[in-house]
Amino acid sequence: SPTPAKSTAQQQASLSGKKVLIAYFSWSGNTKAAAEKIQGLTGGDIYRIEAADPYPGEYDATTDRAKQEQKDNARPAIAGKADLSKYDVIMVGYPIWWYQEPMIIDTFLESGDFSGKTIVPFCTSGGSSIDKSIEHMKTVVKGASFAQGFRYDGNDKEMNQWLNSLGLLKK
Ligand SMILES: Cc1cc2nc3c(=O)[nH]c(=O)nc-3n(C[C@H](O)[C@H](O)[C@H](O)COP(=O)(O)O)c2cc1C
């Protein structure tokens, strides 16, 4: 007889006790705040992804650059490099830019060895969902599995429930 599919709960319980890195990019601070809350709740390590050529301070100039980078399928360089080797779970946080992840997130996903690791996406946005970004990131990163993603809109209770469902709340 066929093996029953694992329940969502069984799959998600597997992240409990794993070593967690929270890697995030943030232009105006919202995703930074979300990442810091997640750090407090999970006890993971935190790493800020920063552009080697920083984005402008002005909104219009930043949206123009972001749009062009997406059109070009660019991989903007990252300042520095994270050591992913000691982590099993990489939480990847970003603002939604033009309906998907900023291209620098794709640079990050191509800059290290994610094989055998679990990526847990989270975002902030003005209203756009996280779904399109996750579909796109799955085409970029090789050999990793993706856990349930989350869009943080200021609802701490939902954030708590999401982390709890993944087994990531610190004991
Ligand atoms: C370049 C750019 C593009 C954006 N595109 C979108 C978008 O497509 N959909 C959306 O809901 N919000 C969009 N926003 C709003 C941001 O996703 C939102 O303000 C987010 O919380 C910013 O996160 P941060 O403070 O970590 O940079 C955009 C903002 C910028 C600067």
Automatic annotation (TrEMBL):
<dbReference type="Pfam" id="PF12682">
    <property type="entry name" value="Flavodoxin_4"/>
</dbReference>
<dbReference type="GO" id="GO:0010181">
    <property type="term" value="F:FMN binding"/>
</dbReference>
<feature type="domain" description="Flavodoxin-like">
    <location>
        <begin position="20"/>
        <end position="171"/>
    </location>
</feature>
<keyword id="KW-0732">Signal</keyword>
<dbReference type="InterPro" id="IPR029039">
    <property type="entry name" value="Flavoprotein-like_sf"/>
</dbReference>
<dbReference type="InterPro" id="IPR008254">
    <property type="entry name" value="Flavodoxin/NO_synth"/>
</dbReference>
<protein>
    <submittedName>
        <fullName>Flavodoxin</fullName>
    </submittedName>
</protein>
<dbReference type="GO" id="GO:0016651">
    <property type="term" value="F:oxidoreductase activity, acting on NAD(P)H"/>
</dbReference>
